[in-house]
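Why do we care about 3D structure at all? Because function follows from shape, and shape follows, mostly, from sequence. That is the central idea of this module. The next example makes it concrete: a single protein chain, its amino acid sequence, and then its structure expressed as tokens.
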Amino acid sequence: MTRKGQKLDRKLTQQILKASSQFPTIGARLKFISAQFIGKPYIIGPLIGSDTEPEVFTATYDGFDCVTYLETCLALAWAKKAEEVNDLLREIRYRNGNIQWKDRLHYTTDWSKYHLKRGAFTDVTRGEDTLTRTKEISFLQCFAPRTITYRYFPKRKLNKVSKRFRDGDLIYFASTRKGLDTFHVGLLVWVDGKLMVRHSAKSKGGVVEQELAEFVKVNTMPGFIVARPKEPIAKS
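And the structure:
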């Protein structure tokens, strides 16, 4: 039996877009929009599709995993009107907007690289404070294993490099797990002089805001990658 995809609440979409339109920059809009979902529950496997199940486009404000939280906030921040949000979300989630399992941007490093190439993001993970990591990714067994190389900030550099980060920056946490590039993603905001990460966390039961330094301290990771959304989004 084929599962049905959910659709975004149009009225809520319009309310969020109207309220966020007062903010002139993508970072300020992301800060405002991401706050609207704090407290929403964590959803395990919110998307529909696999190598054996047909891909179905789905979107909801009822809850998120870490990736769909980021994608939804981005689509809303880039949209000018409610009719654009689903199309933007599709373009964010899938290569060339093609709703197929094979075209979903499963690995975070692929997702970010794709949008960097499109001109939708700026790479913040640069300079002498970064390191290079080469790793085989093979977590999804339906895809052939391959080797990737990416730059990251080692966690010991957080205090130094955090001053470079802005509201709305995207952060990806590098994984120590075999076959996996990252284990979690979030969105950065400054609150009362402290750098916070907003994210949908399974361990917290939903979307929360916490100090980035705290998250980095309690989680095992070599470091993290940061990208900055640009405005306007480049079309496919």
